[in-house]
Every structure is written in structure tokens, then in C-alpha cells.
TrEMBL record:
Domain of life according to the entry: Bacteria
Protein name in the entry: 8-oxo-dGTP diphosphatase
Any Pfam family the entry gives: NUDIX
EC number: 3.6.1.55
Alphabetical list of SUPFAM superfamilies matching this protein: Nudix
UniProt GO molecular function: hydrolase activity
Catalytic activity: 8-oxo-dGTP + H2O = 8-oxo-dGMP + diphosphate + H(+)
Organism from which the protein derives: Polymorphospora lycopeni
Length: 138
């Protein structure tokens, strides 16, 4: 599926390993710096969500990911001219994620998801992720 229509898409990867999800602290812009998000970014014209996630995770973390199911629903961003969609993902190999663009990376267990301040749009997605993560670590 391509990126059609006027609503711009931002995609994020909820990378899960050993029952924890990778959370990333933004380094910019100033109003978002120190807030936490899923690695990802804007889907380019004609690009699929999955291709955008693979590209962004290489750029931001230096890793190759495999993309899985959606987490929660699309969340409107800002003035409503964009939406955020998040997908489960896994690392394809042993290469460890590095904060090439983020201020900090943390692997969070389900009971640690509230220990960081997420970007506002991520809050409902994190709520949808919690039971999924908990089911992995059971
Ligand atoms: N990557 C990411 N962006 C998010 C999340 N939640 C959220 O509100 N956003 C917002 C922050 C930004 O306004 C926008 C993504 O923009 P970005 O700057 O990360 O995208 P990009 O890497 O494609 O950036 P650029 O090429 O425009 O510099 O979406 C999230 O979980 N992950």
C-alpha cells in the first residue's frame, strides 16, 4: 500500500526483544527533546509503511528490522494533517541499536512503560502495547 491522499503518515516501530520494547528519547526539536517515541518518521510519497520503517530504523538506529502487526489505531498528529501508525517489529540479527539520532535508548518492560514521558500521540499506542508486551513475557 502506498502513501496516497493528503493526510501525511508518520510510522513508528515498536521493536520488541525479550518482552521489552525499545523506547527512544528525541534530541530535537526543542519542544520534543527529551520526550520518548518509537523510532520511525515520515512516510515518503509512494513508499509503503513497512519500507519507511525499515529505512528509518537503519538511519536512526543502524539496525535491520522485520515488521509485524499494527499496535492500536492511527492517532491524529498536530493539527490533524498527519497521523501516526505504529507496528510491532523485531531485530533481524544480532546488531544492537545505537542512538545515531536520539538522545537516549531504553528497553522497557511492560511495567516500566510509564517511567518515561511519551510524545502525546504515543500515549494511546503505549496503552495498546502494554498487554501485548505482557503476553510475550508470560
Ligand atoms: N518517529 C516518530 N515520530 C513521532 C512519534 N510520535 C509523534 O508524535 N511523532 C511526531 C514527531 C514529529 O513531529 C513527527 C515525525 O517526524 P520526524 O522528524 O521524526 O520524521 P523524519 O525522521 O521523517 O524527519 P525529517 O526528515 O522531516 O527530518 O511525528 C513516534 O512515536 N515516532
Amino acid at each position: 500500500m502506498g502513501n496516497q491522499g493528503s493526510t501525511r503518515r508518520v510510522v513508528g516501530a515498536a521493536i520488541v526483544e525479550a518482552g521489552r520494547v525499545l523506547a527512544c528519547a528525541r534530541s530535537s526539536p526543542p519542544e520534543a527533546a527529551g520526550k520518548w517515541e518509537f523510532p520511525g518518521g515520515k512516510v515518503e510519497t509512494g513508499e509503503s509503511d513497512v519500507a519507511a520503517l525499515i529505512r528509518e530504523c537503519e538511519e536512526e538506529l543502524g539496525v535491520r528490522i522485520e515488521v509485524g502487526d499494527r499496535v492500536g489505531h492511527d492517532v491524529p498528529l498536530g493539527r490533524g494533517d498527519a497521523v501516526l501508525g505504529v507496528y510491532l517489529a523485531r531485530l533481524r540479527d544480532e546488531v544492537r541499536p545505537r542512538p545515531l539520532e536520539h538522545a537516549e535508548l531504553r528497553w522497557l518492560a511492560p511495567d516500566e512503560l510509564d517511567t518515561v514521558t511519551w510524545l502525546p500521540a504515543d500515549v494511546p499506542i503505549v496503552a495498546a502495547l502494554r498487554p501485548i508486551l505482557a503476553s510475550y513475557s508470560r
